[in-house]
């Protein structure tokens, strides 16, 4: 995993902390994404691909809606 740039969940928490209107949703999805990512990359994995990708997709969509950044 690339550690030179902040993880999506870190960026979402920073945006939430700045007082964004959707702060609660950003924080909730950031927490879910971090948990699913940790579980997916655990040895052995404790989170299935479908669950991990679903959490990422929901978080990425919310991030895109809040920042105007393209989805992909």
Task: Tell me about this structure.
- The chain has 72 residues and is an all-alpha fold.
- The chain has a domain at 8-27 and 43-67.
- The chain contains three helices and no strands.
- The two termini are 18 Å apart.
- The model has no long low-confidence stretch (mean pLDDT 95).
List keywords for this structure.
elongated; mainly alpha; 72 residues
Q: Name the average pLDDT.
A: 95
E-strand count: 0
Question: End-to-end distance, in Å?
Answer: 18 Å
Count of individual helical segments:
3
SSE order, as H and E? HHH
Helix content: 55-70%
Structural class: mainly alpha
Q: Specify the overall morphology.
A: elongated
Summarize the structure.
The chain is mainly α.
Q: Topology, pairings included?
A:
Blueprint: H1 8-17, H2 23-41, H3 49-67
Helix pairs in contact: 1-2, 2-3
């Amino acid at each position: 995993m690339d550690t030179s740039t902040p993880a999506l969940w870190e960026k979402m928490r920073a945006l939430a902390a700045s007082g964004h209107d959707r702060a609660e949703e950003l924080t909730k999805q950031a927490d879910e994404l971090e948990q699913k990512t940790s579980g997916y990359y655990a040895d052995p994995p404790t989170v299935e691909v479908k669950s991990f990708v679903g959490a990422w997709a929901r978080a990425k969509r919310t991030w895109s809606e809040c920042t105007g950044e393209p989805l992909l």
